[in-house]
Amino acid sequence: MYPTLVPSTYLESHLWFIELLAWWQGRVNATDLSRHFAISRTQANKYMQRYRALFPDNLDYCKTIKGFVPQPNFSLRCISGDASEYLDWLDKQGSTVCNSSAHSSHQFDHQPITHTSLTLPKRQVSPVIMRALVSAIRTRQRLEIGYVSLSTPDDQGRVIQPHTFVKTGLRWHLRAYCEKSSVFKDFVLSRFRGEPELSGPARHDPAEDLGWNTQITLTLQPDPRLSAAQRQIIEHDYQMQNGELKLPVRAALAQYLLQELQVSTKFLAGSGEAQQLVLVNRDEVKPWLFDS
Questions:
Q1: Burial (0-12, 13-18, 19+ Cβ within 10 Å), 85
Q2: What CA–CA distance (Å, rounded) separates 98 from 90?
Q3: Comparing C-alpha atoms, which of 130, 124, 138, 152 is closest to residue 196?
Q4: Residues 52, 74 contacting (CB under 8 angstroms)
Q5: Which of 139, 156, 141 is nearest to 194 (CA)?
């Protein structure tokens, strides 16, 4: 169930936090709020009361563990229920998140929730260039700027008309109309060079970007070289339906999605265990793939 509230306001962020801990950690109390948001116990209690007033069937106080626990008919109202939402929150808290209301003498203490994540190398983007790109998008302007690529390593001037920043896993890029190539294309942010200069209103609207505005579906299946038992594992991993995973995506982003899933569209890896997923509608989506 998708949330009916999102943590976009001060109140909603507290309600979201209450529900997040209650659902995923099985308990929440005023001390959790007080420590996480650096507020008084009185304020924290008011937020707990507010949550219970809004969603009276969700939480019940348990004297034994000194906290509110989910009731059997708990209904998600502020969180999505997707484990990645909780894991993303954990990631933002640091390498260890403890049960903040636990004490070493309490019989219901829990072990700290430990986790870690990879630290990816940063790609340098000049603040001057970044501010110019933001300004060009906000004001719908053309931008004169230098750019290098592996095929043209010498700094070449470009006039672009940017419309969207895109994160594709390891890096950020910019979707923009390129006047040199006369097409909408992707530019890696760290490869812009020089002193950018705004040069008048953009002449191409994002609505003209066919690759950006075309929705396609990638159909994936477990590698057929896997055994039936192995295929079932992959199907469960990705919550496949009838042995297939269908992923709707903007056509311009299809290749990036496949790369993140480590799905090769050129050749199969040496074994099914290494490949795991295969794209079964390659001919259908081939016009949008740039490594086919």
A1: middle
A2: 10
A3: 130
A4: no
A5: 156
State the pTM of this model.
0.73
User: Token digits for 16?
Assistant: 């979201």
SS3 120: coil
Query: Cα–Cα distance between 183 and 173 in angstroms, integer?
Result: 16
Rounded CA separation 250/215 (Å): 5
Phi/psi at 47 (nearest 5 deg)?
Answer: -70, -35
CA separation for the pair 149, 156 (Å, rounded): 9
Using an 8 Å Cβ cutoff, are 267 and 256 in contact? no
Parallel, antiparallel or unpaired: strands 141-147 and 156-167: antiparallel
Amino acid at 175: R
Residue entry with tokens 């469960």: 236
Least Cα distance to 79 among 87, 71, 68 occurs for 87
| Residue showing tokens 């933001």 | 134
End-to-end CA distance of the chain: 38
Q: Does residue 221 sit in helix, strand or coil?
A: strand
Strand partners, 166: 173
Residue type, 108: F
DSSP label of 208? G
Task: Render pLDDT for 235-284 as a digit per residue (tens, 0 to 9).
Answer: 999 999 999 999 999 999 999 999 999 998 887 777 888 899 999 999 99
Neighbours of 142 (CB within 10 A): 21
Going from the C-alpha of 6 to that of each of 20, 57, 166, 213, the distances in angstroms are: 12, 19, 23, 27
Q: Which of 9-13, 53-57, 106-110, 270-274 has the lowest mean pLDDT?
A: 106-110
State how far the Cα of 268 lies from the Cα of 244, in Å rounded to an integer: 18
Pairing of strands 141-147, 113-114: unpaired
